[in-house]
Amino acid sequence: MAAPEILPDRRAVPDRLRGCSLAIGNFDGVHLGHAAVLRAAHAARPDLPLAALTFEPHPREHFRPEDPPFRLTLLPAKARALSALGAQAIHAVRFDAALAALDAEGFVEQVLHRGIGAKHLACGADFAFGHRRGGDVAFLGRAAEARGIGLSVVPHVTDAAGPISSSRIRRVLQDGYPERAARKLGRAWEICGVVSHGDKRGRLLGFPTANIALDGHLEPARGVYAVRVRLADGRVVDGVANIGRRPTVEGTELRVEPHLFDFSGDLYGQEIAVGLIAYLRPEQRFASLDDLRAQIAADSTAARAALAAA
Prior knowledge:
By secondary structure, the chain is of the alpha/beta class.
């Protein structure tokens, strides 16, 4: 798949991408509801380039910077997921004080009409925008029609528990149910990051790990997971991972440490994506490194079984 085109400046959109059918939303996680918005945008105007508009940083990060990290997808992973749904361009509109102060009419005129040049819009039924969320889908429909822009309003995609949302996905991940998150996302939830050097303790224990930081991602339930790791070259390797602070070795930094089964190679400096498949057990402290080594061996066996059943 070609790398998605990320456009950070709405005032510098290439002519070939103007006149698009535009899906609008925060798209955190790019879940099944978001996929429905992309499909609606394309179905309404299949003759136009398909694009997605999202906000960077997430508006919640702008208004509540003291909140702990909550993002399901950072921009590169979000862009890849949107591209996989057919988006040819991702407009990563900067959410800052100026945009927050822009009223709903100004957002339609300056961002959607003059900036991006959209010819059709698609959004969820609860989409709100503009200063103090002053614009809703009814307002958007009127403002778009006045400019000759079409609009598709997409009903909630639901499951047995109600509308699928990023908030629900965050909760099930924090409660240790990655398989429930996967059903709402349409794929395993991944933590993406660049492999960095650790203290090499896993190698000494006979279970080398590829360490990445959470770096702005939501913190899921701490503990041990069966995982599938997507490497920079596209290969997917099964493994077992600990997410936490490594209490047995007095760790303090929150890390994701996957051990890849039947793999050898140098991954330092490469971006990998750690997909959480099944939660195996909580993080715990062991009396000795020998006890830890034995538990990692048992976790590896349990992870292989969970992955075989997934």
